[in-house]
Protein backbone atom coordinates (compact mmCIF):
# COMPACT_ATOMS: atom_id res chain seq x y z
CA UNK A 1 0.00 0.00 0.00
CA UNK A 2 1.25 3.54 -0.70
CA UNK A 3 2.41 5.66 2.19
CA UNK A 4 1.11 9.15 2.90
CA UNK A 5 3.03 12.35 3.51
CA UNK A 6 1.63 15.79 4.23
CA UNK A 7 3.25 18.70 2.36
CA UNK A 8 3.07 22.25 3.74
CA UNK A 9 -0.30 23.08 2.17
CA UNK A 10 -2.08 20.02 3.64
CA UNK A 11 -2.10 17.93 0.49
CA UNK A 12 -0.94 14.33 0.71
CA UNK A 13 1.40 12.28 -1.47
CA UNK A 14 0.82 8.59 -2.05
CA UNK A 15 3.84 6.84 -3.50
CA UNK A 16 5.96 3.74 -3.44
CA UNK A 17 9.35 5.39 -3.84
CA UNK A 18 11.02 8.65 -2.91
CA UNK A 19 12.34 11.23 -5.37
CA UNK A 20 14.16 14.55 -5.12
CA UNK A 21 11.90 17.50 -5.92
CA UNK A 22 12.91 20.86 -7.35
CA UNK A 23 10.74 23.92 -7.90
CA UNK A 24 10.29 25.23 -11.44
CA UNK A 25 7.91 27.64 -13.11
CA UNK A 26 4.81 25.77 -14.33
CA UNK A 27 4.49 26.55 -18.05
CA UNK A 28 2.75 24.12 -20.36
CA UNK A 29 0.79 25.54 -23.31
CA UNK A 30 3.82 27.05 -25.16
CA UNK A 31 5.70 23.77 -24.75
CA UNK A 32 2.85 21.79 -26.28
CA UNK A 33 2.54 24.19 -29.20
CA UNK A 34 6.28 24.11 -29.85
CA UNK A 35 6.40 20.32 -29.69
CA UNK A 36 3.49 20.05 -32.13
CA UNK A 37 5.28 22.25 -34.65
CA UNK A 38 8.52 20.30 -34.36
CA UNK A 39 6.72 16.98 -34.77
CA UNK A 40 4.94 18.19 -37.89
CA UNK A 41 8.19 19.43 -39.45
CA UNK A 42 9.93 16.14 -38.65
CA UNK A 43 7.04 14.14 -40.07
CA UNK A 44 7.06 16.08 -43.35
CA UNK A 45 10.83 15.69 -43.68
CA UNK A 46 10.78 11.93 -43.07
CA UNK A 47 7.91 11.41 -45.52
CA UNK A 48 9.66 13.53 -48.17
CA UNK A 49 12.83 11.46 -47.82
CA UNK A 50 10.90 8.21 -48.04
CA UNK A 51 11.86 7.12 -44.54
CA UNK A 52 8.25 6.81 -43.38
CA UNK A 53 5.24 5.35 -45.15
CA UNK A 54 2.41 7.92 -44.84
CA UNK A 55 -0.22 5.16 -44.66
CA UNK A 56 1.63 3.41 -41.86
CA UNK A 57 1.96 6.71 -40.02
CA UNK A 58 -1.75 7.40 -40.47
CA UNK A 59 -2.59 4.00 -38.98
CA UNK A 60 -0.53 4.79 -35.88
CA UNK A 61 -2.21 8.16 -35.49
CA UNK A 62 -5.62 6.58 -35.98
CA UNK A 63 -4.83 4.05 -33.26
CA UNK A 64 -4.18 6.76 -30.71
CA UNK A 65 -7.12 8.86 -31.91
CA UNK A 66 -9.75 6.12 -32.13
CA UNK A 67 -8.59 3.11 -30.12
CA UNK A 68 -6.94 4.75 -27.16
CA UNK A 69 -7.04 8.14 -25.51
CA UNK A 70 -9.23 10.21 -23.19
CA UNK A 71 -12.46 9.05 -24.86
CA UNK A 72 -11.76 5.59 -23.44
CA UNK A 73 -11.35 6.93 -19.94
CA UNK A 74 -14.44 9.09 -20.35
CA UNK A 75 -16.45 5.97 -21.24
CA UNK A 76 -15.17 4.27 -18.09
CA UNK A 77 -16.13 7.27 -15.95
CA UNK A 78 -19.59 7.55 -17.52
CA UNK A 79 -20.29 3.88 -16.93
CA UNK A 80 -19.20 4.19 -13.30
CA UNK A 81 -21.56 7.15 -12.89
CA UNK A 82 -24.51 5.17 -14.27
CA UNK A 83 -23.77 1.64 -13.03
CA UNK A 84 -23.20 1.32 -9.25
CA UNK A 85 -22.07 -2.30 -9.55
CA UNK A 86 -19.45 -1.40 -12.14
CA UNK A 87 -18.31 1.56 -10.03
CA UNK A 88 -17.75 -0.68 -7.03
CA UNK A 89 -15.76 -3.09 -9.19
CA UNK A 90 -13.78 -0.24 -10.74
CA UNK A 91 -12.69 1.07 -7.35
CA UNK A 92 -11.86 -2.40 -6.04
CA UNK A 93 -10.07 -3.73 -9.13
CA UNK A 94 -9.48 -1.00 -11.68
CA UNK A 95 -7.45 -3.26 -13.94
CA UNK A 96 -10.15 -5.89 -14.36
CA UNK A 97 -13.00 -3.41 -14.69
CA UNK A 98 -11.22 -1.31 -17.32
CA UNK A 99 -10.06 -4.37 -19.23
CA UNK A 100 -13.64 -5.67 -19.28
CA UNK A 101 -14.52 -2.69 -21.48
CA UNK A 102 -11.83 -3.70 -23.95
CA UNK A 103 -9.31 -1.03 -22.94
CA UNK A 104 -6.09 -2.98 -22.68
CA UNK A 105 -2.55 -2.43 -23.79
CA UNK A 106 0.78 -0.82 -23.10
CA UNK A 107 0.91 1.26 -19.89
CA UNK A 108 -2.54 0.07 -18.93
CA UNK A 109 -1.62 -3.36 -17.60
CA UNK A 110 -2.11 -2.44 -13.92
CA UNK A 111 -4.57 0.29 -13.00
CA UNK A 112 -5.98 1.80 -9.84
CA UNK A 113 -8.88 4.23 -9.91
CA UNK A 114 -9.24 6.80 -7.11
CA UNK A 115 -12.53 8.58 -6.53
CA UNK A 116 -13.09 12.28 -5.95
CA UNK A 117 -15.68 12.96 -3.25
CA UNK A 118 -17.14 15.98 -1.52
CA UNK A 119 -14.21 15.94 0.91
CA UNK A 120 -11.33 14.52 -1.15
CA UNK A 121 -9.73 15.59 -4.44
CA UNK A 122 -7.20 13.32 -6.14
CA UNK A 123 -4.36 14.21 -8.51
CA UNK A 124 -1.99 11.85 -10.35
CA UNK A 125 1.66 12.37 -11.23
CA UNK A 126 4.80 10.38 -11.95
CA UNK A 127 7.57 12.02 -9.96
CA UNK A 128 10.34 9.89 -11.46
CA UNK A 129 9.55 10.13 -15.18
CA UNK A 130 6.20 10.12 -17.00
CA UNK A 131 4.38 6.86 -16.25
CA UNK A 132 0.85 7.41 -17.52
CA UNK A 133 -2.22 5.26 -18.34
CA UNK A 134 -2.14 5.49 -22.12
CA UNK A 135 -5.01 3.07 -22.69
CA UNK A 136 -7.53 5.31 -20.95
CA UNK A 137 -5.97 8.77 -21.25
CA UNK A 138 -3.96 8.59 -24.47
CA UNK A 139 -0.54 10.18 -24.73
CA UNK A 140 0.52 12.35 -21.78
CA UNK A 141 0.49 16.14 -22.23
CA UNK A 142 3.85 17.90 -22.26
CA UNK A 143 3.26 19.54 -18.88
CA UNK A 144 2.66 16.14 -17.23
CA UNK A 145 6.16 15.06 -18.27
CA UNK A 146 7.78 18.35 -17.27
CA UNK A 147 9.87 18.68 -14.12
CA UNK A 148 7.77 21.64 -12.95
CA UNK A 149 4.57 19.65 -12.57
CA UNK A 150 6.31 16.48 -11.36
CA UNK A 151 8.06 18.24 -8.50
CA UNK A 152 5.65 20.98 -7.52
CA UNK A 153 2.38 19.05 -7.43
CA UNK A 154 3.87 16.86 -4.72
CA UNK A 155 4.91 19.76 -2.48
CA UNK A 156 2.26 22.37 -3.24
CA UNK A 157 -0.69 20.68 -4.96
CA UNK A 158 -3.14 23.49 -4.22
CA UNK A 159 -0.90 26.07 -5.82
CA UNK A 160 -0.43 23.94 -8.92
CA UNK A 161 -4.15 23.24 -9.21
CA UNK A 162 -4.81 26.96 -8.86
CA UNK A 163 -2.59 27.56 -11.89
CA UNK A 164 -4.83 25.18 -13.83
CA UNK A 165 -7.81 27.28 -12.77
CA UNK A 166 -8.99 24.88 -10.07
CA UNK A 167 -9.56 26.51 -6.67
CA UNK A 168 -10.48 23.99 -3.99
CA UNK A 169 -12.16 24.81 -0.70
CA UNK A 170 -9.80 24.72 2.31
CA UNK A 171 -11.66 21.80 3.87
CA UNK A 172 -11.13 19.54 0.85
CA UNK A 173 -8.21 17.15 1.32
CA UNK A 174 -5.85 16.84 -1.66
CA UNK A 175 -4.30 13.45 -2.34
CA UNK A 176 -1.47 13.11 -4.86
CA UNK A 177 -0.90 9.64 -6.28
CA UNK A 178 2.51 8.73 -7.69
CA UNK A 179 2.32 6.40 -10.69
CA UNK A 180 5.06 3.86 -11.25
CA UNK A 181 6.10 1.44 -13.98
CA UNK A 182 4.10 -1.22 -12.13
CA UNK A 183 0.94 0.73 -11.28
CA UNK A 184 -0.84 3.65 -12.92
CA UNK A 185 -3.68 5.74 -11.59
CA UNK A 186 -6.79 7.37 -12.99
CA UNK A 187 -9.11 9.78 -11.19
CA UNK A 188 -12.85 9.15 -11.11
CA UNK A 189 -14.37 12.66 -10.99
CA UNK A 190 -17.59 13.44 -9.16
CA UNK A 191 -20.69 13.28 -11.28
CA UNK A 192 -22.00 16.82 -11.84
CA UNK A 193 -25.32 17.79 -10.34
CA UNK A 194 -28.29 18.02 -12.67
CA UNK A 195 -27.15 15.25 -15.00
CA UNK A 196 -29.58 12.57 -13.84
CA UNK A 197 -31.37 12.38 -17.20
CA UNK A 198 -28.23 12.15 -19.33
CA UNK A 199 -27.21 8.87 -20.96
CA UNK A 200 -23.77 7.33 -20.49
CA UNK A 201 -22.79 8.56 -23.95
CA UNK A 202 -23.88 12.10 -23.08
CA UNK A 203 -22.10 11.98 -19.73
CA UNK A 204 -18.88 10.85 -21.39
CA UNK A 205 -18.83 14.09 -23.37
CA UNK A 206 -18.51 16.02 -20.09
CA UNK A 207 -15.35 14.21 -19.01
CA UNK A 208 -11.93 15.59 -19.97
CA UNK A 209 -8.39 14.26 -19.81
CA UNK A 210 -7.49 16.80 -17.13
CA UNK A 211 -10.45 15.71 -15.03
CA UNK A 212 -9.11 12.16 -15.03
CA UNK A 213 -5.64 13.40 -14.10
CA UNK A 214 -7.11 15.56 -11.38
CA UNK A 215 -6.08 19.02 -12.57
CA UNK A 216 -9.74 19.81 -13.30
CA UNK A 217 -13.06 18.80 -11.74
CA UNK A 218 -14.24 17.23 -14.97
TrEMBL record:
Lineage: Bacteria, Pseudomonadati, Pseudomonadota, Alphaproteobacteria, Hyphomicrobiales
InterPro entries in alphabetical order: CN_Hdrase_a/SCN_Hdrase_g_sf (IPR036648), CN_Hdrtase_a/SCN_Hdrlase_g (IPR004232), CN_Hdrtase_asu/SCN_Hdrlase_gsu (IPR023900), Nitrile_hydratase_asu (IPR018141)
Identification of the protein by name: nitrile hydratase
Protein residues bound to Fe(3+): 126, 129-131
The keyword Aminoacyl-tRNA synthetase belongs to this UniProt entry's keyword annotation: no
Species annotation: Mesorhizobium plurifarium
Domain Nitrile hydratase alpha/Thiocyanate hydrolase gamma per the UniProt entry, residue ranges: 36-216
Class of enzymatic activity (EC top level): lyase
Coiled coil: none
SUPFAM superfamilies on file: Nitrile hydratase alpha chain
GO molecular function: nitrile hydratase activity; transition metal ion binding
